[in-house]
Amino acid sequence: MADETNDAIDQGAERAKSATDQAATAAKGAADTMRNAADQARAGFSERVVDPAKRAGEAMKASGQKVAEGGATIGTKMIDQAEQNAREAFAAMREAAGAKDISDVIRIQGEYLREQSQRSMSQAREIGELIMQFGRDAVAPLRGAGEK
User: Fold this and answer.
1) What is the DSSP annotation of 50-108?
2) Looking at residue 47, what is its pLDDT?
3) Contact by Cβ (8 Å): 69, 135
């Protein structure tokens, strides 16, 4: 009877071990399935959210750099134009200072005002073109980021 009891205990232990092995295999399979699903979700999130956000950030940085470059270019151009205008004004004043009579002074002033008017229009057009170009350059990286 002791042998039968030992056999029954061994069979019960075998069945318990078999059931435990099956449960462990099922749990491992479920864990693997969940890990794979999480990896797919992470990859999808990265593809749909993280990567576009990175591209947008890079585009904003490039756009900001273009704005800074454009601002510096326009500032430098305006300083160059102011220097040119000052040189022209002093040249006209020197010429007026050497005038023989008032009619020469009036002629010199008239020529200066006419030339300055033309120069101002040309300079305004030049600055306007620079502003438009730098605006196009500044938004180009942003447009490119939305297309990817």
Assistant:
1) IHHHHHHHHHHHHHHHHHHHHHHHHHHHHHHHHHHHHHHHHHHHHHHHT-SSHHHHHHH
2) 79
3) no
